[in-house]
Specification:
mainly alpha; 66% helix; Leucine-rich Repeat Variant; 328 residues
Length: 328
């Protein structure tokens, strides 16, 4: 049975090399022993034969083992970019366990294959688990961003937009699915129907839905939302200030800089960090001056985490000193 210790991941410079043991041996070990990072890493970049062998055995693993494997795949894929679990995770999308299906979707965040797009669309509409359907909507946000960048064909993009918009606006859907769908469809945010859906979500009495609408505004990269975002930067709710601050960096207009500067002193740490990150994304001389001042203060206070965040923001902001994004 997998144990918490077996899920530990070492820093990049301490990772053991991926071994060359036969896939059949790895598959057998995962069934009988603890789930170890070295074994799961070996499931990266499987060939068709290896993927088929794993798919055949997958239902025979107990649920705890399956959950441990997909969680470790998700963590390893984020920690070590050279590891690719696309084929290994396909059986998990069909798993009886909703937890396995949900984590598998999250672990496939970099996969842009059309078969995954089709599978996620089907899961959004028909998976029996609310959490798995919500995760499918979230995963489709990656494809929506590709569509907005003209990296999906028109037929696929139109179908994706329509089905996300249906989920976002269907009053029969649960709130979490609606929220994840509105966040995903935000990538199509310059579309009139999508703008209307975002405005409706923002006008909801549900604060979480309002926060998702702000997330969608950022994902749209659309200056259409400038006035609304400026207003929400002064919200009395930290959740809304945070989402508005984060969205400002994605919209990327230098008219937002003065209000973001003010939020760098916000009482809520996450709001402050979102404002700092967005200043870096927008750039410009004013942003760089403020960030450098914040860096000096963080250094004096020995606030290491803040200093690292501010340093990254300064580096990004300096790229846009001569040509800040948006504004006059």
């Amino acid at each position: 049975m997998p144990t918490p210790m077996s899920l530990a991941i070492l820093p990049n410079d301490e990772q053991p090399p991926v071994d060359e043991r036969p896939i059949s041996e790895i598959i057998a070990l995962l069934r009988t022993g603890p789930v170890r990072a070295t074994d799961v890493a070996r499931l990266s970049d499987l060939d068709r034969a290896g993927a088929g062998a794993l798919a055949e055995v997958w239902p025979r693993y107990d649920e705890a083992t399956r959950i441990a494997i997909v969680r470790l795949m998700e963590a390893l894929a984020e920690e070590r970019v050279e590891l690719i679990f696309s084929r290994a995770l396909r059986p998990a999308l069909e798993d009886d366990s909703p937890v396995v299906r949900q984590v598998a979707i999250a672990a496939l965040w970099e996969d842009a294959s059309t078969d995954l797009l089709d599978r996620l669309l089907n899961m959004l509409e028909s998976d029996p688990s609310i959490d798995a359907r919500a995760e499918a909507a979230k995963g489709l946000g990656h494809f929506a961003a590709l569509a907005a960048a003209d990296e999906l064909d028109d037929t696929q993009a139109d179908a994706l937009r329509a089905r996300l918009l249906d989920a976002a606006t269907d009053p029969e859907q649960t709130s979490v699915i609606q929220r994840r769908a509105i966040e995903a469809v935000g990538a199509f945010g310059k579309d009139d129907e999508v703008r209307e859906a975002i405005e409706t979500a923002h006008g909801s009495e549900d604060q979480s839905m309002q926060a998702s609408a702000l997330f969608a505004m950022g994902r749209s990269h659309d200056p259409y939302w400038l006035d609304l975002l400026l207003g929400e930067l002064a919200s009395g709710e930290a959740e809304l200030r945070f989402e508005a601050a984060r969205a400002c960096g994605l919209v990327g207009h230098d008219d937002l800089v003065p209000e973001l500067i003010a939020l760098c002193d916000d009482e809520d740490m996450e709001v402050r960090h979102a404002a700092i990150t967005s200043l870096g994304q927008i750039g410009g001389r004013a942003a760089v001056r403020v960030l450098e001042s914040l860096a000096a203060a963080a250094d004096a206070a020995e606030a290491t985490a803040d200093l690292e965040l501010i340093a990254a923001a300064i580096e990004e902001a300096q790229l846009n000193v001569e040509q800040p994004r948006g504004g006059l």
